[in-house]
Amino acid sequence: MSVEYKIKVRTGSRLGSGTDADISVVLVGSLGESERYVLDKRFHNDFEAGAEDVYTFKTQDIGELLLLRFTNSAGLASDWLLDFADVTSGDKSWHFPYYRWVLGNTTAEVLEGSAGLPQNVRHARMAEARRAQLDNRKKMYPWRPAEATAQLPGALDISKERPLPKDELYRGLTEGSYAGVIAKTMATIRLHLPLLADAWNGLVDTLGILKYLELPKLAERWQDDHEFARQAVQGVNPLHITSITALPEGMPLTDHEVRGLLSPGTSLAEALAAKRVFLIDFEVLEGIPMFRKVNEHGVEERRWAPPSRCLLYLEDSQRLRPLAIQLGRDPVKDPVFTPNDSEADWLAAKIYLRCSEGNAHQMVAHALRTHFVVEPFVMATMRNLPDPHPVYKLMRRHFRYTLAINDGARKGLLDEGGVFDDFIATGGPDKGHIKLGQKGFQRWKLADNKPRQDFEHRGVLDPAILPDYPYRDDALPLWDALAEFVSGVLAPFYKSDADLVNDSEIQAWWADLIEHGIPVDKMPCARLERVADLADILTTVLYTGSVHHAAVNYLQYEHYAFVPNAPLCMRKPPPTQKGVLRKEDISEMIPTQSQTLWQVAIGRALASFGEDEEFLLNEGGWRETYFQEPEFLAVRERLYERLRAQVDVVKARNAKRDVPYTVIQADKIPCGITV
Known about the structure:
Blueprint: E1 2-11, E2 23-29, E3 32-33, E4 37-38, E5 52-60, E6 65-72, E7 80-89, E8 92-102, E9 106-111, H1 124-140, H2 179-191, H3 202-210, H4 225-234, E10 242-244, H5 268-273, E11 277-281, E12 292-294, E13 300-302, E14 309-314, E15 320-326, E16 336-337, H6 343-384, H7 390-395, H8 402-414, H9 420-423, H10 432-443, H11 451-457, H12 470-490, H13 497-501, H14 504-517, H15 531-553, H16 556-560, H17 593-606, H18 630-654
Antiparallel strand pairs: 1-5, 1-7, 2-3, 2-4, 2-6, 6-9, 7-8, 10-11, 11-14, 12-13, 14-15, 15-16
Helix pairs in contact: 2-17, 3-17, 6-8, 6-10, 6-14, 6-15, 12-15, 12-18
């Protein structure tokens, strides 16, 4: 019996998505296959970018549709980006989401879009298609050899012979890089360099560079102690502040040294016992090699970022202020500076502390704890979960551009000769920044990225202890909303733990992940046997790539562009004596003009949004929609309700702040790591 089928095909809207190639399709169903049909309408330009084209044809009844087999017959520059296809026949309809490329001279099988676990697949042909899709993906997404990622998370193996898959290419079909924004920023700066003073003084001349860009708001108040403390709770790296009840070992500090800095009648011991003292500690830099290189003229260049630490005090006004800073760990060699010391000593101590924070931030809080720990989950998902798997459908849109941007970061920033060698203290021949990342990974576990557990561990979960902590207060509602969302998506498929244990695809995902990506001792469970564990892991990954990454990334221009606030290298060793330093000496300690240019340009590139950015709360809708099930749509709407409530609360809170904190407001947080 002949049956009429109508197929609607949507081409992607990205640059170059359309094609003039001959595209044909075969419908594959439970009762067999159709003939091959060339999708071509007379006097019509088929498959233009962003277009929807509809075709009608008749064939024998092939039963329930399982997949569409598209063939792209042409060669050079004929690649076609297929968003999705919809097929109807009578009162029946099928949806085929794809959002990937059908390359020239290739055939792609696009699986029917109903979400389901492998043990529930009813047709052998669909099971075969799922296996075939994964076999192909494993060739496209190979792991880097273990020795290439020693002591770091696993990563995609990319080479000249095996480039980044086109499905992962960055915005505008380019490889992941920061080159565009960096180049424009550097060009703007260099155009006006002749107007700057010949003798470089970074304390004042940085303003001359920024005159032709956006001036960070903190430039007007960067030397203020309260501003310094504010950055610990709502700056670019708000992950370190810890409540303490005793002085750190090797940090001698007396009541005399903090005279006038505590509440009247309060001793240092009493302030500690009352939990009004907090620690920021960059001990992770201890033993990390710093930049050291001799040029062709025999001149040695060195840089420093000491393992600094800082005490903050909660004043009666409920504001934090810095109490003491030590630029090392030796109680004999490394003095403890306080606001009672000379203006030059105290300013230098704060600048060195921020430099230490910057180096730890770039490689540990940012690169490692977001970019590099998410990549193994992208890899395991692409290699082991076919399109219809609910976990693939849940996570795929949150992995957009992550592999590309990580590849760009390695090549452009981290590898030998990369930008970090030009201006970061831990860069250079000894690869201190890589060793720093390795050290951070050695200490890290996935559970460390769970915000509530992290706040509790640092003793700052209770607002009674630390009243004004915008990162905590804005982040926790987002974690709770994402946790509910993930559990709600998984619930219809994993009705019991047995469903998870019997899911061969997710078990392969787990085995691949812990063998090549992240060691099992860093995961919250030794075996993936509980649905609650899967939901917890996926929530952590989703939170890490969105909320956590936004917190440590999108303030980089504001934080780093006025370089004296947070230089990423110091050109002199930290002072070991008090009362010797003059304020004019500080300009010789902070970055050179060239290093300043790089820091401004990189900060601007890393803090930029793309034109096609999608946010957690994306009121215009999600460009890539993989689920069609009504249960999912209800869960997604519930997520949106909670995200809208978070935005309202953040806006109301910021209306009362001297310095608003908007970086983890739900409608400003990208869905994943896209820069």
